[in-house]
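Handover notes (outgoing to incoming on-call)

Open items:
1. Methyltransferase-like protein 22: sequence verified, structure written out, both below. Nothing else pending on this one.
2. Nothing else urgent.
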Amino acid sequence: MSDEEQCKITSEIFPFFDRDTSAKPLLDDKNVISKFRFSLPCSKVNGARKLEKDEDGDYILERGAPHGIIESTIVLAEHSVSTILKLVGLQIWRAALLLADFVIHSQDIFLDKNVLELGSGVGLTSIVAAIFASQVTCTDLDAENILNLLESNIKRNKNLLKGQIYVKGLNFFNLDWSSDLTKRVEESHVIIAADVIYDNDVTEAFVKTITKILSTGCKKTLFLGLEKRYVFTISDLDSVAPCFEHYKFCIERAQTQQPFSDWDVSEVPIDFPQYFNYERTRELVLFRISS
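Methyltransferase-like protein 22 structure tokens:
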């Protein structure tokens, strides 16, 4: 067994997933099917109270359904239990649930729009976006059955979808796009991505990719959900979040040049209601970049 095969990673929230043991994985017998329950509000929750924090700085969240709920529903997703680093998109991570919460809460932003997701993984956030958007294009690496898994999960949840949803290959390291992908990028209004920052080379390629996307076609807004992952290093003698810090460095460097210097980059408060069941920790962050 190679070192890479031995160094597998499991999402920190996997033990809390509600697994559907009656459903059978279609792409890999080692995969599992999980049920992600969420509450769908009848309209955007206006005037929701600002969430308070506990002594550790974590948000104090009501576990009951937010005001205005009309139904509770489920996204079914086939996903891996553990993967090597380069295939973490085959799992589901906390920032994807944060971003899905934001989509539900801020549905007016997505309503009848064309949405493009980068690094869609198993497709959970794209599926939620397709409840409101007129068209969603899911993108990820065309490798290791990722796109097939995306398509399979979309079919599992077709009863939820309002808009058309498409699956396309997109590699951050290759900016030479097909004419079809270029057209979809040009026509996209909203870009979403979650937990795509886990390797410095990938981060640099991601920033170059969003620079091209936000420069192509109509004006767009990107919403990026991330989780700061802290490690203790001897060099710093402290707990640091190196991948997140490198992301900030790449964004700040990009902002010194056009067209990025003309764009608005801001952090979005995450005190909106919680519709999915997960721990919304203080390490979760959400960014907005508007061209």
